[in-house]
Amino acid sequence: xxxxxxxxxxxxxxxxxxxxxxxxxxxxxxxxxxxxxxxxxxxxxxxxxxxxxxxxxxxxxxxxxxxxxxxxxxxxxxxxxxxxxxxxxxxxxxxxxxxxxxxxxxxxxxxxxxxxxxxxxxxxxxxxxxxxxxxxxxxxxxxxxxxxxxxxxxxxxxxxxxxxxxxxxxxxxxxxxxxxxxxxxxxxxxxxxxxxxxxxxxxxxxxxxxxxxxxxxxxxxxxxxxxxxxxxxxxxxxxxxx
Length: 242
Fold this sequence. Notes:
The protein is of the alpha+beta class. The protein folds into two domains: 6-69, Arc Repressor Mutant, subunit A (Orthogonal Bundle); 75-229, Chorismate lyase-like (Chorismate lyase, 3-Layer(aba) Sandwich). 26% of the residues lie in helices and 31% in strands. The chain is built from seven helices and ten strands. It has helices at 6-19, 32-39, 43-55, 84-90, 109-115, 162-169, 186-192, and strands at residues 59-62, 66-69, 75-77, 95-105, 123-132, 135-145, 174-182, 200-209, 212-222, 227-229. The protein has a six-stranded antiparallel beta sheet. A two-stranded antiparallel sheet has the order 1-2. The longest helix has 14 residues, at 6-19.
């Protein structure tokens, strides 16, 4: 096996300490001169390694102060439909949800357009704030067809999520996504604890079971706290998950 270059070993040294929690977000990492001495490396080699990590968002530099561990913004795969509680726990975060609203609602122009007139008097609406490490990262504003999910109004959102329940009541067969950037309204700002000029990523999601539309959700993510990404390969190994 080929021996790693000095720059790669410096990168690995920094990344390992960030990922194992030895250096936490906001911590100052050793100065370039310290790393040069530790690894018997040139300033150019150390500078290049740190510059690469800064480009990748692992660290950030402040003139005259040094280099610091960056706060990693949570990322979700746009090609995957997953339980946000599980996603947060899988990346080592502390999950908490806050139910803001749960009720049956009459048909509106929006829900009539989305579900069709036949869903009249059969819709439930919920608003749930999902938090990671105490910080709101998603406001889930969801409408559900009660003919497909009759127990939705009785859910205990402190013990489960809409996603988890709906996957049991009406297993997912198809999903449709639309992602856009928006300036949220007063209620969204309050629930997400963000200033009025903070933009959000708005993911509109429809999910079907068989040929029936089960749920329509508007998912708001503060742009400074969340990002989306995904990998597609033409051989079909790109994914869909519940």
